[in-house]
Each structure stands twice: as C-alpha cells, then as structure tokens.
Amino acid sequence: MKIDTSEGTLLLDALQENGYHVPTLCHVEGLVPRGACRVCSVKIGNRLQTACTTPVNDGMEVITQDDELDALRKQIVEMMLAEGNHFCPFCEISGQCELQELAYQFGITISNYPYLFQDRDVEASHPKLLKDHNRCILCKRCIRLIKDEEGKRIFAFSKRGSKLSIQIDTELAKNMSDELANEAIACCPVGAMLPRNKAFQVPIGKRKYDNISHNNSTENLRENNGEK
Ligand code: SF4
Q: What element of type H or E holds 156?
C-alpha cells in the first residue's frame, strides 16, 4: 500500500496518520522520540529500524508487520515481562496497561525468558504519586514529558545496568500541581506511576482494553495494514 506524507515526517507518525497500526510503548506524540522500547521496529530494505526515530524518505519501502516482526515484538514484550515484576491480577491498572495489552495481542501467557524477580521497591515519599519500580519498563515517557514551570525535568534515570531506575527529583516535585501529577500518571504505559490515596477508580470491565477480542490479533492487524 502506498502512503503520502511530507518528507521528514517520522515514519511512525506517517503510518499512524494513514491508518496503519504499529505498536509502541515509549512513543508520545509531539515529543522527541527516543526509540527506547524498540517495539515499533519495522523493516526498511533488509534492515530493522525503529519507526518512531526514522524520518520518511521519498520512495521508502517499509514492511510494518510480518512473522519476523511479530516474533521480534513478542520477544521484546516477553523480556520486559521477565525483567520486571508484573503481576497483572494484582495490578491497579490491569485492563488499562499497554504492556499487558501487547502481551494479549501476541498471545503471551508466560515469558520464554527466565523471570528475574528483582528486589525492587515502591517509592511513596511524594504526596501525590506512588512510584512502583517493579513495573517500570524504562520507557522514558515521564522523563521526557514531565517538566516544572521552568522546563526542568522532574524525573530522571538513576544508577546503571540492572539497577537502572527512574527517580523523582524530590525538590522539584515538592510544588508539583495536581494537573502535572495526573499527567505523569496518565503518561505511564504500565502501573509504575500511581496516584496516592486512590485506587481502582475505573471499575474492572470498563477499562480501556477490557472488551477487546484478541483472537488472531496479529493476523487481523496484518490484514488491516494491507500486509496479508
Ligand atoms: S515510570 Fe512509567 S512512564 Fe516512567 S519510565 Fe517507567 S514505565 Fe515509563
């Protein structure tokens, strides 16, 4: 299928504008992309590239979905599930979680990677936010999006390697408005950023992904993307 867009548009945006579905866990419209999650990887020629960081060129040929890409995306989701502590039945945002939804799309019931069961904490020092490090997939959405009135980032990476985590700048966050705290909660694709003193505000059964059928999900997407 052919699509028209202006040269330089980022491929993921161009595809979405033209009705193609390419999954992503780190992309936020309007923010500089970072290619952090790799879930939007597509094939351009013989190479895999992240659609969110690749500008469109005239005549570019792109495969957005095939068996290899499905397998790659499934592996990435499985790795995330094994790396963190994701216990969906106990999670506040089960049914609204983008990682869980992708796991359903790919028919994942258990990860093929060894579960690390890392010892991670829940940070509860902030008056408005709870930060559950067990569920963080390090997508950087909060780092890129949430800034104070002077444009300073409120979240940042801390430590390295398997200890890498997102920390809140307690000084800057002291004056965080309710609106900004809600924005931080809403930007998180998983249940790693939660409001304090509130839970299960949307009843189970009425959550974003509750009524989606996942029968042959990836095949349906391929058909919708004209790649079958
Ligand atoms: S807290 Fe949420 S938004 Fe921030 S990096 Fe972790 S998963 Fe992404």
A: strand 155-158
Would you give the DSSP letter of residue 193? E
For 65-81, how does the pLDDT look when each residue is reduced to its tens digit (9 = 90+)?
999 999 999 999 999 99
Cα(137) to ligand 1 centroid in Å equals 6
pLDDT, position 214: 79
- In this structure, the residue with its CA closest to atom 3 of ligand 1 is 188
Write the pLDDT tens digit of every residue in 141-178. 999 999 999 999 999 999 998 889 999 998 988 889 99
Phi and psi at residue 50, to the nearest 5°: -75, 125
**Strand intervals (E) in the chain:** 41-44, 47-50, 62-63, 122-123, 129-132, 155-158, 165-168, 193-195
User: Alpha-carbon distance 101 to 94, whole Å?
Assistant: 9
144 Cα–ligand 1 center, Å: 10
Contact 228, 182 (CB under 8 A): no
41-44 vs 47-50, strand pairing mode: antiparallel
Cβ atoms of residues 96 and 207 within 8 Å: yes
